[in-house]
Design a protein that fits this description.
Blueprint: H1 2-19, E1 53-60, H2 63-72, E2 75-76, E3 86-89, E4 95-98, E5 102-105, H3 111-122, E6 129-135, E7 139-144, E8 150-153, E9 159-160, H4 161-167, E10 175-186, E11 189-195, E12 209-210, E13 215-220, H5 233-249
Parallel strand pairs: 7-13
Antiparallel strand pairs: 1-3, 1-6, 2-3, 4-5, 7-8, 9-12, 10-11, 10-13
Helix pairs in contact: 1-5
Protein backbone atom coordinates (compact mmCIF):
# COMPACT_ATOMS: atom_id res chain seq x y z
CA UNK A 1 0.00 0.00 0.00
CA UNK A 2 2.84 2.37 0.82
CA UNK A 3 4.41 1.64 -2.55
CA UNK A 4 1.23 2.58 -4.35
CA UNK A 5 1.01 5.83 -2.40
CA UNK A 6 4.60 6.64 -3.21
CA UNK A 7 4.04 6.00 -6.91
CA UNK A 8 0.82 8.00 -7.00
CA UNK A 9 2.46 10.92 -5.21
CA UNK A 10 5.48 11.01 -7.47
CA UNK A 11 3.37 10.77 -10.66
CA UNK A 12 1.22 13.65 -9.39
CA UNK A 13 4.35 15.73 -8.83
CA UNK A 14 5.63 14.93 -12.32
CA UNK A 15 2.39 16.00 -14.01
CA UNK A 16 2.03 19.06 -11.79
CA UNK A 17 5.56 20.21 -12.57
CA UNK A 18 5.09 19.60 -16.28
CA UNK A 19 1.82 21.51 -16.46
CA UNK A 20 2.76 24.54 -14.36
CA UNK A 21 4.36 27.52 -16.05
CA UNK A 22 5.24 30.70 -14.13
CA UNK A 23 2.93 33.63 -14.86
CA UNK A 24 5.76 35.82 -16.14
CA UNK A 25 6.14 33.48 -19.10
CA UNK A 26 2.45 33.74 -19.98
CA UNK A 27 2.04 37.53 -20.02
CA UNK A 28 1.97 39.84 -23.02
CA UNK A 29 3.25 43.39 -22.46
CA UNK A 30 4.54 42.43 -19.02
CA UNK A 31 6.13 45.89 -18.71
CA UNK A 32 2.98 47.85 -19.50
CA UNK A 33 3.02 49.57 -16.09
CA UNK A 34 6.39 51.06 -16.97
CA UNK A 35 5.13 52.89 -20.05
CA UNK A 36 5.21 56.67 -19.69
CA UNK A 37 3.71 57.69 -23.04
CA UNK A 38 2.10 56.12 -26.13
CA UNK A 39 4.42 54.43 -28.61
CA UNK A 40 4.54 55.92 -32.11
CA UNK A 41 4.63 53.51 -35.03
CA UNK A 42 3.54 54.86 -38.45
CA UNK A 43 1.67 52.36 -40.60
CA UNK A 44 3.70 52.44 -43.79
CA UNK A 45 2.25 50.86 -46.90
CA UNK A 46 3.57 47.56 -48.20
CA UNK A 47 5.47 47.86 -51.47
CA UNK A 48 4.61 45.56 -54.35
CA UNK A 49 7.09 42.71 -54.80
CA UNK A 50 7.60 39.95 -57.37
CA UNK A 51 5.05 37.10 -57.06
CA UNK A 52 2.48 39.31 -55.33
CA UNK A 53 -1.05 38.88 -56.63
CA UNK A 54 -2.92 42.07 -57.45
CA UNK A 55 -6.58 42.78 -58.02
CA UNK A 56 -6.79 45.50 -60.66
CA UNK A 57 -10.11 46.96 -61.75
CA UNK A 58 -10.63 49.56 -64.43
CA UNK A 59 -13.60 51.83 -63.76
CA UNK A 60 -15.14 53.52 -66.79
CA UNK A 61 -18.47 54.94 -67.84
CA UNK A 62 -18.10 52.90 -71.04
CA UNK A 63 -19.38 49.33 -70.40
CA UNK A 64 -17.29 47.93 -73.25
CA UNK A 65 -14.10 49.33 -71.75
CA UNK A 66 -14.88 47.77 -68.37
CA UNK A 67 -15.59 44.41 -70.04
CA UNK A 68 -12.30 44.38 -71.94
CA UNK A 69 -9.99 45.34 -69.11
CA UNK A 70 -11.69 43.58 -66.22
CA UNK A 71 -12.28 40.14 -67.71
CA UNK A 72 -10.64 39.20 -71.00
CA UNK A 73 -6.96 39.10 -70.08
CA UNK A 74 -7.10 38.58 -66.33
CA UNK A 75 -5.61 35.50 -64.79
CA UNK A 76 -8.03 33.28 -62.94
CA UNK A 77 -6.59 31.44 -59.92
CA UNK A 78 -8.08 28.20 -58.70
CA UNK A 79 -9.61 26.92 -61.93
CA UNK A 80 -12.88 25.12 -61.37
CA UNK A 81 -13.67 27.08 -58.23
CA UNK A 82 -16.68 29.37 -58.53
CA UNK A 83 -15.13 31.63 -55.92
CA UNK A 84 -11.79 31.82 -57.72
CA UNK A 85 -9.91 35.05 -57.26
CA UNK A 86 -9.23 37.10 -60.35
CA UNK A 87 -5.93 38.90 -60.30
CA UNK A 88 -2.62 39.70 -61.90
CA UNK A 89 0.58 37.94 -60.92
CA UNK A 90 3.67 40.13 -60.59
CA UNK A 91 6.51 38.30 -62.33
CA UNK A 92 10.09 37.92 -61.12
CA UNK A 93 11.05 41.22 -62.78
CA UNK A 94 8.22 43.11 -61.08
CA UNK A 95 6.01 43.35 -64.18
CA UNK A 96 2.35 42.67 -64.81
CA UNK A 97 1.01 41.89 -68.27
CA UNK A 98 -1.88 44.27 -68.83
CA UNK A 99 -4.32 44.10 -71.77
CA UNK A 100 -3.28 46.15 -74.82
CA UNK A 101 -0.62 47.99 -72.83
CA UNK A 102 1.67 45.01 -72.32
CA UNK A 103 4.16 44.87 -69.47
CA UNK A 104 3.94 47.48 -66.73
CA UNK A 105 6.59 47.48 -64.02
CA UNK A 106 5.05 47.92 -60.56
CA UNK A 107 7.99 46.68 -58.48
CA UNK A 108 8.54 48.63 -55.24
CA UNK A 109 5.42 50.76 -55.77
CA UNK A 110 2.53 51.22 -53.35
CA UNK A 111 -0.91 50.23 -54.62
CA UNK A 112 -1.72 53.93 -55.01
CA UNK A 113 1.39 54.55 -57.10
CA UNK A 114 0.68 51.44 -59.17
CA UNK A 115 -2.88 52.57 -59.92
CA UNK A 116 -1.57 55.96 -61.09
CA UNK A 117 1.04 54.31 -63.33
CA UNK A 118 -1.50 51.94 -64.89
CA UNK A 119 -3.94 54.79 -65.45
CA UNK A 120 -1.24 56.80 -67.22
CA UNK A 121 -0.34 53.82 -69.41
CA UNK A 122 -4.00 53.35 -70.34
CA UNK A 123 -4.51 56.99 -71.24
CA UNK A 124 -3.11 56.30 -74.72
CA UNK A 125 -5.96 53.87 -75.37
CA UNK A 126 -8.94 55.05 -73.33
CA UNK A 127 -9.74 58.21 -71.42
CA UNK A 128 -11.63 59.01 -68.25
CA UNK A 129 -10.77 55.84 -66.38
CA UNK A 130 -10.08 55.18 -62.73
CA UNK A 131 -7.92 52.30 -61.52
CA UNK A 132 -8.28 50.31 -58.30
CA UNK A 133 -5.32 48.19 -57.18
CA UNK A 134 -5.47 45.88 -54.17
CA UNK A 135 -3.62 42.85 -52.88
CA UNK A 136 -5.38 39.50 -53.08
CA UNK A 137 -4.68 36.16 -51.43
CA UNK A 138 -2.81 37.71 -48.50
CA UNK A 139 -1.56 34.80 -46.43
CA UNK A 140 0.66 34.18 -43.43
CA UNK A 141 1.87 30.94 -41.92
CA UNK A 142 1.72 30.40 -38.15
CA UNK A 143 3.34 27.28 -36.70
CA UNK A 144 4.85 26.02 -33.45
CA UNK A 145 3.29 26.36 -30.01
CA UNK A 146 -0.08 27.75 -31.12
CA UNK A 147 -3.54 26.28 -30.78
CA UNK A 148 -4.04 25.88 -34.54
CA UNK A 149 -1.08 25.71 -36.90
CA UNK A 150 -1.67 26.55 -40.54
CA UNK A 151 -1.76 29.04 -43.37
CA UNK A 152 -4.24 31.85 -42.78
CA UNK A 153 -5.70 34.39 -45.21
CA UNK A 154 -6.41 38.00 -44.30
CA UNK A 155 -7.82 41.03 -46.09
CA UNK A 156 -6.61 43.88 -43.87
CA UNK A 157 -3.97 46.22 -45.25
CA UNK A 158 -2.11 45.94 -41.96
CA UNK A 159 -2.04 43.05 -39.49
CA UNK A 160 -0.15 43.18 -36.18
CA UNK A 161 1.92 40.29 -34.89
CA UNK A 162 -0.64 39.80 -32.11
CA UNK A 163 -3.53 39.63 -34.58
CA UNK A 164 -1.56 37.17 -36.70
CA UNK A 165 -0.99 34.84 -33.76
CA UNK A 166 -4.66 35.27 -32.88
CA UNK A 167 -5.54 33.70 -36.24
CA UNK A 168 -3.84 30.57 -34.94
CA UNK A 169 -5.92 30.61 -31.77
CA UNK A 170 -3.18 32.15 -29.64
CA UNK A 171 -0.20 30.56 -27.96
CA UNK A 172 -0.37 27.36 -25.96
CA UNK A 173 0.69 27.54 -22.29
CA UNK A 174 4.10 26.34 -23.41
CA UNK A 175 4.71 28.92 -26.13
CA UNK A 176 7.64 31.22 -25.40
CA UNK A 177 6.35 34.78 -25.80
CA UNK A 178 9.92 36.04 -25.61
CA UNK A 179 11.09 33.89 -28.49
CA UNK A 180 8.93 34.36 -31.57
CA UNK A 181 10.66 33.90 -34.92
CA UNK A 182 9.40 35.92 -37.88
CA UNK A 183 10.69 34.91 -41.31
CA UNK A 184 10.26 37.44 -44.12
CA UNK A 185 11.45 37.73 -47.71
CA UNK A 186 13.09 41.08 -48.33
CA UNK A 187 14.22 41.51 -51.92
CA UNK A 188 16.58 38.57 -52.49
CA UNK A 189 17.17 37.89 -48.81
CA UNK A 190 15.34 35.73 -46.30
CA UNK A 191 15.37 37.59 -43.00
CA UNK A 192 14.90 35.86 -39.65
CA UNK A 193 13.98 38.01 -36.66
CA UNK A 194 13.39 37.12 -33.03
CA UNK A 195 10.57 39.02 -31.34
CA UNK A 196 9.71 39.45 -27.68
CA UNK A 197 5.93 39.77 -27.31
CA UNK A 198 6.20 40.45 -23.59
CA UNK A 199 8.08 43.69 -24.23
CA UNK A 200 5.85 46.66 -25.07
CA UNK A 201 8.64 48.22 -27.14
CA UNK A 202 7.79 45.80 -29.94
CA UNK A 203 4.97 48.14 -30.95
CA UNK A 204 7.56 50.64 -32.22
CA UNK A 205 9.48 48.10 -34.29
CA UNK A 206 9.26 47.45 -38.02
CA UNK A 207 8.09 43.91 -37.43
CA UNK A 208 5.11 44.87 -35.30
CA UNK A 209 3.08 44.69 -38.51
CA UNK A 210 3.30 41.45 -40.45
CA UNK A 211 3.30 41.28 -44.24
CA UNK A 212 1.83 38.77 -46.69
CA UNK A 213 3.85 35.54 -46.90
CA UNK A 214 5.47 36.08 -43.50
CA UNK A 215 6.10 32.92 -41.49
CA UNK A 216 5.66 33.09 -37.71
CA UNK A 217 7.21 30.36 -35.57
CA UNK A 218 6.38 30.16 -31.87
CA UNK A 219 9.21 28.44 -30.03
CA UNK A 220 8.52 26.29 -26.92
CA UNK A 221 9.77 27.34 -23.51
CA UNK A 222 13.31 26.14 -22.89
CA UNK A 223 12.29 24.15 -19.82
CA UNK A 224 9.65 22.24 -21.76
CA UNK A 225 10.55 20.29 -24.86
CA UNK A 226 6.95 19.43 -25.64
CA UNK A 227 3.47 20.35 -24.46
CA UNK A 228 1.48 18.47 -21.88
CA UNK A 229 -0.52 16.74 -24.56
CA UNK A 230 2.64 15.21 -26.00
CA UNK A 231 3.49 13.27 -22.85
CA UNK A 232 3.15 9.68 -24.06
CA UNK A 233 1.96 6.58 -22.29
CA UNK A 234 5.44 5.14 -22.85
CA UNK A 235 6.92 7.96 -20.76
CA UNK A 236 4.38 7.40 -18.00
CA UNK A 237 4.91 3.63 -17.90
CA UNK A 238 8.66 4.11 -18.02
CA UNK A 239 8.48 6.44 -15.03
CA UNK A 240 6.35 3.99 -13.06
CA UNK A 241 8.71 1.09 -13.85
CA UNK A 242 11.73 3.12 -12.79
CA UNK A 243 10.05 4.16 -9.53
CA UNK A 244 9.10 0.61 -8.66
CA UNK A 245 12.65 -0.57 -9.29
CA UNK A 246 14.09 2.20 -7.10
CA UNK A 247 11.63 1.57 -4.29
CA UNK A 248 12.20 -2.18 -4.34
CA UNK A 249 15.95 -1.65 -4.37
CA UNK A 250 15.74 0.63 -1.33
CA UNK A 251 13.63 -1.91 0.53
CA UNK A 252 10.38 0.02 0.75
CA UNK A 253 7.67 -2.32 2.02
CA UNK A 254 4.11 -2.59 0.67
Amino acid sequence: MKLICYIAGVIFIIFFAASCVPKKYLSYFSDINELEKPVYNPRTQKLIMPFDKLYIRVLSIDPQTSLIFNVSEEIRYGAGNNNAIIGYLVDEAGNINFPFVGKINVDSLTTTQASEKIQKALSDYVSNTSIIVKYVNNQITVIGEVQRQGVFSFTKDKLTIYEAIGLGGGLTPYGDRKNIILIRNENDKIMQNRLNLSNSKISSKNYYYVLPNDVIIVEPLKAISSSYSNITYTTILGSITTLIAILLFTGVSF
